[in-house]
């Protein structure tokens, strides 16, 4: 099957809208994160080499390396969300006639649910990092393309808040409450202060337009 | 040249990150809007036909038609942003040796700048509409896929705030102040209350997870 990242935007949107459960919101969240990282990369690429921005050239080079690495991670998560969903559905389809089968099925579901919690949490972490990179791009990047840093931060924020919803769903179904609480707490610590950080970056961009 | 919507996600992201100025934030904004509409469509498609949701079936049918029409509009805007940018660059490249050439060039730039204001403003209007559709999906859609309505609203909001930045840039360069003020005011009236509306939809989704 074609890797989702190799599908066209039109096909991706068509499949998103369709009644097939994947791709869904988890892939959309990862795509928004990847898009944010790509836009940070664009700001770097259009800042590096401009005499006016020679002073921040080295910093932009480091930022570009970070944003490109982050983009690769987030692009991979577009597919990871589909994969873990498919594995979860396979577990739900396991036989449940005997007590032994029921126990094996439940154990398999719980095991994959932990992965299904980890995938959007990892997306949330990556989007959080992207917001930080957006701030640098917004403060130091070429003012001529600074709106792209603003689009990037909104995209990263949407990716983060979207991934959060998928974490909430999965922690709610976990029987291992200690694991669930730990993941939920990590998510809250990521979300804390994020709205303010995003507002700050957006404001910086607006001031530099 | 390949229409941008027929390019793969990977190619789109690569081109976004590259130093070529298009695609840029305007296309990213339209894609987020289209993605929001697609996710509303998904919620409708996974609600229609379910006996538990028979009561809202007709409403979901109407919502699906509206979201699919909106998706088509927004998908078209991914390319429209590139097109108007290319036209604007062509104007900036016009000769400016003689006074007559300067005047013709300036007139051409101002004319295309009006279009370049209208394109993201139209994207902002469409994303605003999408937020309204997200609310219906969040309130009435199948609870089993309700997180997708939450991802949709964040995507639409990011699209709207991103499009707004592109409106701000272009109105700032317009010499026709009456036109510029009118467009800026329309944008402000769209933005007004949007944050609260988005927060409300997100909260409804969280409560129904």
From TrEMBL, chains A, B:
Keywords: Hydrolase
EC number: 3.5.4.9
Domain Cyclodeaminase/cyclohydrolase: 8-188
Protein name per the record: Methenyltetrahydrofolate cyclohydrolase
Signal peptide region: none
Source domain of life: Bacteria
InterPro entries assigned: Cyclodeamin/CycHdrlase (IPR007044), Formintransfe-cycloase-like_sf (IPR036178), MthfCyhylase (IPR054893)
GO molecular function: methenyltetrahydrofolate cyclohydrolase activity
Taxonomic source organism: Methylotuvimicrobium alcaliphilum (strain DSM 19304 / NCIMB 14124 / VKM B-2133 / 20Z) (Methylomicrobium alcaliphilum)
Gene: fchA
């Amino acid at each position: 099957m074609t890797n989702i990242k190799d599908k066209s935007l039109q096909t991706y949107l068509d499949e998103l809208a369709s009644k097939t459960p994947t791709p869904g919101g988890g892939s959309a969240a990862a795509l928004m994160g990847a898009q944010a990282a790509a836009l940070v990369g664009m700001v770097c690429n259009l800042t590096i080499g401009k005499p006016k921005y020679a002073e921040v050239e080295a910093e932009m080079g480091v930022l570009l390396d970070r944003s490109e690495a982050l983009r690769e991670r987030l692009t991979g998560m577009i597919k990871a969300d589909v994969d873990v969903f498919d594995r979860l559905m396979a577990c739900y389809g396991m036989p449940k006639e005997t007590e032994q089968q029921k126990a094996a099925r439940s154990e398999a579901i719980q095991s994959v649910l932990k992965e299904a919690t980890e995938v959007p949490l990892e997306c949330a972490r990556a989007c959080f990092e992207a917001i930080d990179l957006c701030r640098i791009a917004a403060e130091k990047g070429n003012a001529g393309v600074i709106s792209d840093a603003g689009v990037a931060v909104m995209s990263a924020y949407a990716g983060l808040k979207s991934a959060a919803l998928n974490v909430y769903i999965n922690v709610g179904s976990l029987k291992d409450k200690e694991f669930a609480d730990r993941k939920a707490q990590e998510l809250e610590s990521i979300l804390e202060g994020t709205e303010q950080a995003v507002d700050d970056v957006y404001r910086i961009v607006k001031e530099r337009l």
